[in-house]
Amino acid sequence: MAVLTIEGGKRLSGEVEIHGAKNSALPILAATFLCNEKCTLQNCPALSDVDASIKILKHLGCKVVREGDQIEIDPTAAHNCTIPDELMREMRSSIVFLGALIAKCGKARISYPGGCELGPRPVDLHILSLQKLGALIDERFGSIRCRRVGRLCGNTINLPLPSVGTTENIILASVTARGITKIHNAAREPEIMDLAGFLNACGAKISGAGDSVITIEGVEKLGGCTHRIISDRIEAATYMAAAAATGGEVLLKKVQPDYVEPVFYAFREAGCELEIGADTILLRAPARLNRIKLIRTQVYPGFPTDAQAPMMAMATVARGTTMFIETIFQNRYRHVDELCRFGANIKVEERVAIVEGVDSLYAAEAQATDLRGGAALVIAALAAHGESKIGNIRHIDRGYAELETDLQALGAHIKRVDY
Ligand code: EPZ
User: Fold this and answer.
1) What is the Å distance from ligand 1's center to 261 Cα?
2) For 35-93, how does the pLDDT look when each residue is reduced to its tens digit (9 = 90+)?
3) What is the Cβ-side half-sphere exposure of residue 254, based on CA atoms within 13 angstroms?
């Protein structure tokens, strides 16, 4: 079992290169299963969720070769259409294999996905949407059995909410369906654009990705391509929050600033200076942060729910009171009790959290409760005086590649200790 030990109170300063986006890499890895030629993905982050996707692809019969941040997938010999429970449970994104499996194999058997516990995370919209495309689905005894008779058929799907995973699943299922599929109220996240970009490079006909109406004209089959994964906007926001919480200065490189834009207002309100380049973001924090009046999480291009916990860690040391409203997930404040161990002053009432900034945090022992909540604890520990220990870091490893190395390069005293 590994823990992170962090000697906090050091001002972070320096440069960090942002890795490829986890939430792009995962659906794109699932999409490679649909292809009929080799695919090469560049800028793939070294994360346990990426390892889990590779395990699924291999289980399905794909050949996968990984070299550094490049992954080569040869799906031509894939033969399996079942994903066992232990692989499904490793992450939430395993559910997007369903769309790819039913489209390519004509049948699929999977169980329910795992992933961070953020309150109820049903898959009802995924199921209903695939049914609209003609999939016959039977949910029984904890497994989802899916089959089709003939090709799936394009349809118009009106999503009641712009679910990211559901939008991805519809795209994967409909890309080789007969006719045209239209998704209304589709998710607009950059990761959806990346998935569509990858599929179009393989011969798909998808338009409107990034807008709330996406049109998919089914094609007979997909080829392959070489594709570079976009940079991780949440990793970028996390390093910005870490630097800000320590009064530091950080230059993010290899980043796509447009995608990080929804968090800029909060840093500026906190008193940070931002200099935005073509693929860089420079953040310069004041010695003491100001409060941010309100952080309300929203779907893209609103403030991302995935940046809520890291920003909350930062707000614990600001001057004044910051209010958070979490609108996407029902229970995404599990990090709050752990942040309070560092001396943070936070009250939660349903979807609202009120953070009363304190002069300083003290070192503590805490347990990561989920991926972004874990990152929030790292930030609190970096800002706190003394040596902190953070356990349960398998959550953090799901979404932050080379975290210790990158933070060390910024001057943090952080190390991973195996017990
Ligand atoms: C994606 O999860 C991300 N995961 C999450 O990132 C992110 O927090 C989330 O989108 C929102 O931006 C990946 O991309 C792998 P949703 P996803 O479907 O697709 C409800 C991180 O930290 N819903 O947009 O699961 C759901 O319960 C992670 O990197 C249904 O009710 O999110 C939630 O309240 C965590 N029925 C809301 O929609 C469904 O069938 C948004 O979920 C599907 C979703």
Assistant:
1) 20
2) 999 999 999 999 999 999 999 999 999 999 999 999 999 999 998 999 999 999 988 88
3) 14
- Identify the domain containing residue 253 by its residue range: 2-19+231-418
Nearest 10 degrees: CA dihedral of 405, 367, 189, 280?
A: -30
216, 258: one domain: no
Q: Which of 166, 196, 228 is the last residue of a domain?
A: 228
Dihedral of the alpha carbons of 211, 212, 215, 216, in degrees to the nearest 10: 90
Q: Is residue 163 within 8 Å of residue 169, measured between CB atoms?
A: no
Do 213 and 333 fall into the same domain?
no
For the chain, the domain total comes to: 2
Residues 7 and 128 grouped into a single domain: no
SS3 335: helix
Q: Establish whether residue 121 lines the binding site of ligand 1, counting it when its CB lies within 6 angstroms of any ligand atom.
A: yes
303 lines ligand 1 (CB under 6 A): no
Measured from the CA of 115, which atom of ligand 1 is nearest?
Answer: 35
Does the CB atom of residue 388 touch ligand 1 within 6 A? no
Domain boundary among 228, 249, 281: 228
Q: Is 116 a catalytic residue?
A: yes
Report how far ligand 1's centroid is from the alpha carbon of 124 (Å).
12
Residue with CA closest to ligand 1 atom 42: 163
| Same domain as 179, residue 109 | yes
Which atom number of ligand 1 is nearest to the Cα of residue 189? 12
How far is Cα 44 from Cα 84, in angstroms, rounded to an integer? 24
Is the same domain home to 40 and 185?
yes
Q: CA–CA separation, 20 vs 24, rounded Å? A: 8
230-248 pLDDT, tens digit per residue, is: 999 999 999 999 999 999 9
